[in-house]
Structure formats: C-alpha cells, structure tokens
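P.,

For your records, the input lines for the assembly:
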Amino acid sequence: MFEVLFLQFLNGLDKGSAYALIALGLTLVFGTLGVVNFAHGALFMIGAFCAVTFRQLLTLETVTVDPNNLSPWGTPVEIRAPLVQAWFGDFGAILVNYSVPLSLLLAIPVMLLIGIGMERGLIKYFYKRPHAEQILVTFGLAIVLGEIIKAIFGPNPIPQPMPTDLRGAADIGAWLGMAPGVITYPLWRLVYFLFSAGIIAAVFAFLQFTTFGMVVRAGMADRETVGILGINIDRRFTIMFGIAAVVAGMAGVMYTPLLPPNYTIGMDFLVISFVVVVVGGMGSLPGAIASGFLLGILQSFASMTQVKAIFPGIDQIIIYLVAVIILLVRPRGLLGRRGVMET
Amino acid sequence: MSTIKGGFTRRNVIKTGLTGILATGVAPLVFSRGAWAQDFCNNPTGSTVTFGLNLPLTGAYAEEGADEQKAYELAIKHLNGEGDGGLLNVLKPSALKGNGILGKKVQYVSSDSQTKSDVARAGATRMIERDGAIMITGGSSSGEAIAVQSLCQELGVIFMAGLTHSNDTTGKDKRRYGFRHFFNAYQSGIAIAPVLGEEYGKERRAYHLTADYTWGWTQEESIKAATEALGWQTVQTVRTPLGAADFSQYLTPVLNSGADVLILNHYGNDMVNSLTQAVQFGMRDRQANGKQFEVVVPLFSELMAKGAGENIKGIFGTSNWHWNLPDEGSKAFTKSFGAAYGSPPSQAAHTAYVQALLYADACERAGTFYPPEVIKALEGFEFDGMGNGKTLYRAEDHQCMKSVLVVRGNEKPTSQFDVLNIVKEIDRETANYDPAIFGGELGAAEPVPQCR
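Structure tokens returned:
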C-alpha cells in the first residue's frame, strides 16, 4: 500500500507543480498590477507552441522525389533529408533530440516581449477599471490568441518527443533501498517537478534578494509611497508582467512532452489555476504555491480506485469541493491578506 | 331519394366527392411511381442533392474527422463522374452511373461536431432543417452516432454512420433510419481473443482503462468477456473521461495492481496520450507475475499508430480495414485516395467513402430518394468489391457483416505510412453473431416524419 500511496504522491507533486507555476504567474500579475488576467493560460499555450515552432525549425527537410520508386497509389516516393543533420551531422541530431529543453532559449525572449507588449498595449488601460471588465477583456484576449494559434498550427495536438535519455521510468524504489521495480516513475515528470521547483525558487529569490525585487515587494505593499520616493514603479511592474509571462511560457514548453499541445491547452489549465489562486489567497505568492501542490496531491489521491469505490466521480470534483470548504472556513484563502479584492 | 337544397342529390355529392378524393389523393399513389416522393424531408426538386457531413474536425477524434472529410469529398467527386471513379468501378452489383444520384449532381454541407454528441446533434439538425440535407453521414464517436441516428429517425432522414464501434449503435440503440458499415466491439472481441491467447498465454491478469461513454463501455464488456473466456482474469476496470489528456493519475494504480496486461479502451487522441504515457511509466519494460507486462489496444487505426509513433510497435489491436489489403477494391480506393491527397486512406476514410457510395447506390436501385424505399434497398443488400470481401447489410440490425482484421504495430516500418501489419483476417462467418443478443428495436420506416 505504501508504494501505491507514494506513487500517487509523486503524481500529485507533478500535477501540482504545473498548477503552481501557472498560479505563480497569475498571482505575480494580480499582486503587482491588481489585474485579474484570464489571458494567463494563453501565455502557457504560447510557450508550448514556442517548443513546437522550435522543433519545426530544427526538423526542416529538403524533399526530392525518386521517379523510379512509386508509392502504392502510383506517385513517386518522396525522399526527405533533415537540413540540420545535413549541416551539423551528429550535433544536429543532438539538437533535434533536445529540442524541447533547448526551445526555452526561444521561449524566454519571445514570452518576455509578448508579456511586455500585452501589458503596454492593452492591460495598462484597464488598471483602474472594475475587475469584471479586466476579466472580460483578458478572457477575450485569450480566445483571440487561441484562435490565432489554431489558424497557424491547426486544431489537433502536436506531439513533442522528450530527449531519448529522459524517456522511460526511474526506479525510485531502488534509490530508496527497496526491491527493483516496486516504485517506478516517468523520468520526464521528475524533471518537470525539479524544473518547477527551480523556477519557483528563482522567482522567490529574485523578489527576496535583489534590489529590483525589494522595490517590487514594496510597491505591492504600498504603491503610492514607493511612487512618492521617486521610483518608477510602473516600469518595474511592467517588467514583472513580462517575467510572469516568461514563467507561464517556460511551464508550457516543458509540459509539451507530457501533453501534446493544441490551442485549448491554456484554457484547460487556467480554470484550475484560478481555483488554485483563490484557495491560496488572492495576491499571496506562497499561498499560490502551497495550494497548487495541495490541490494537485488531493486530485491524485482522489483518483485512486479505492477512493472512487467509496465516492464515485470524486476525482472530477475534488478540487472544487476543497475550494468551497476552504473558502467557507477561510474566506480569504489559505494565506490571503486582508483588504485584497475586498471593499 | 332525398334532395339537397340547391339541386344536388346525395348520390351526386358522394360521387363527386369520391372522384375528387381519387383524383387528388389516392390515384397518384396507385398510378404514379414515386408519387410519395412529394411528401418527405428535403425531397430534392432541383438539379442537385445535398449530403450533410457531420465531421469531428476538432476534439479527441479530430484526425479521423479530417480523413473522413477527404473521403467524402472524393466519393462525391466519383459519384458526379469526376476523377478516376474509385470504387464505382469495382462495386458489384452496382446501379451507379457516375452522373450523380438519379441524375442529380451531388453537393454537400458540413458541420464540425467537435467529437461531442450534443454538438453533433445540433449540427445535423441545422444541416437538415436549414441546408436541406437528404442524408446525414459521418462522425468518429459512437456517442455522436447514437445521438444523430436517433435524431434522423425523428426527422425521417437516413443516417449513414461513419466510424462508430459501440455495440449499441446497431444493438440496443439501433434505428430504422441508421446504417453502420464499420464493425463493432463484439466483433473485435471475437477477432482478437484467440490471437492474444496464442501470443500471451491463457493465464493473464488484465487491467482496463476505459473511455467513459457508450463505446468504451461496450468495448470493455466485449473484450473482458472474450479474454475471460480464454482464462484471463480481470483485475480492475477503470473509467476515464473522454478527452482526459493526462492519464497519469489513472496509470499509476496499474503499476501495483497485480495486473500483467493493460487494456486501453481508448481511441483517437485519447489512445495516443494514454499509450504514450503508459510507455513513459515504463509499462512496456516491466515484468509482472513473472511475465513481460503487455499493453493491448483493442481498436486502433493507422492515424493513431502514426500519432503514437514508436510506442505502438508490437501492440495488438483490431481494424475494420487497412489500405494494403490485396483485393481489387482496397487497391482501387488506396490509389484514388493516395493520388488525391498524397497519403493512404485510414479506416475512417474507407468507411466514410463506402457509406456515401452505398447510399447513392441504394437510391439508384430504389429509383427514388424516398427514405423507406432507400431503406428497403439497403436492408439485406449483399455486395462485394468494397475492400472487405463479400459483405451483407444485415436487415435485422443494419450492421454490415464482413471480415475483420487483427493488426499489430509494425516493428520495422519502411515508410511513414507503413505503421501497421495485418496479423490475421477473420472471415465474415467467424465474425458473425446473432443480432438478438443486443436487443433494441429498429422502429418503423413509415409514416415518414416531416422535418420542417
């Protein structure tokens, strides 16, 4: 039984890390700019399609036809030769193999530009508007971005292979001194968890240990006073929006081997991530992280057959059920602050 | 004799009335063939006739929907006398002339069903009521097929189902106006069980992950019954939502369940995701109960095999048809489709194309579009040349009875299309079963409902 519970716990960490990463970005935007950004899921999706684009560029091929070799339908067989491998040999093959992690190099600047462009081009006009209007405009933006991706890449999921070295499962049981094969878990899911933990730690360290972060935290606590001190807090908040976009984009990139992306992937995660933010407490970064992992783990345990035998269908509603209970007991969420989204 | 005011006699009034009734109502039914043709849904009066294509172009089964669309477009071209004629040249017997249907040029309207039953039903309603579709066809999900079939029965429009594999489509939910060319889950069980027994032995413990809707339920039931008859035990059956995408939470319990076979009752993108994730969990590298752990996918297609890539190699399943079958019909269709689109047709494309032709042929043989007559022409129709050998459209349940394929993911593909190998062709007699076992009532063909 320990093995079963431990596997579900690992699964919960894996799901929770995806929820926490998206919720972290959402909370950064809400905490700095006071904007409820429903387009945040779309940023996750765009990140995922950065990985798709990067791989498509790396796998560009030259196509020639062999007139002497006919297909069963009578047309000459196409001979395809990958360009990158032709140019760089084995190094080209390595680039293609590691296309997903390497596409972070494309995703980071692209997402930073998209984030800053989105904030300067649209979001800033809605700072002082009611939250309902912010939700409407950002939700509309999310739909527009989804349709653009659909128009370019089509409606169907596009699988992204993980590097061959990271395929298959890790024998965690053997690492813990148990018999081989008792607890195995996909390597890439472990990589994703460690990657998420690293990003979360980096964002917290950035806010905690840099002057920029200190000013941002001060601005989150009392924007007017920071402004009176002559600090351009708006510019810093714009950069924070860009950083939130980068976090969402990187989460999207690294998730592609687990779930082939299509234009709806962002919306699928967004709904749950909003519940995560609300449960964690609006504007609370530690709250978002804690509730992301908590809900991921609970969802995983609720999927166990033993649990579903007692509560059929519980895996589909557990997140919302817990959200209702927590909000009834702690209306501001787990670590919410007084005065946030309250009149 | 009593006289009615105004000089009419009662006898004269009765005579005149009877004459009028005969002249305006009854006589045309007696003397004019096809006179009922004035009184049914979307009776085509112009020079064209419209098919309604209900296609899942988005959602879990979108790949199949896209291939079905290509097949219907090709079938309509061939019916209108364009292109190389495809299977019109090999269908036997055939009343098709390559000049449309009954001299009317075939055109089509389409709707994206999104792989959702409610959207499929709404799309079919729109195509019938707004666009004047004479026949509805398509779909890659049994949920959609059953919903649309039921609607078509209500509106008096024939439904030629696309890819639907649930036993219920021609079982408990069968309808007089619905016809299925594709095989079903029960036949998959008949076909695959002996092969699984030969390959994996008679002492196995199976764990089922099942798409939670009509197709998944009936496939699970059929495969469970067939494997248990071999001597296998069923450890657990777990339902997963259609379009779940991430199956990790359902896969982790498999690892310590005591099972040594995972049976994935998933189709389309769901199967691609669940199989890929099962491989990521190391299931194809495991040993359980002293045996190699195996994964079985009872229904899969070449489109799914391409999506699953390396992961499908060596995996057993069943298929309705495969493009490299050696018969003349399969060769003709593969040639037409490949020349038009640069890739071989999938089983979804094949069934869609065949259904379009069979409907057209039935109209030609009936000499009318009047649905009850077309239904009569299809019921019990025996034909050959469409790629599955001699085939019967069984009158009792509107299920096509024909051969079934057991397939296996190709270990050594020679091209991007060479993803499946045919392991065994199960003949029509072996795949046969009593239609009464699934119950259901076809219902009446007449009186024909009025759709508008």
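Two observations worth noting. The longest strand of chain B covers residues 48-55. Chain B has two domains: 48-183+323-402, 186-319.

Regards
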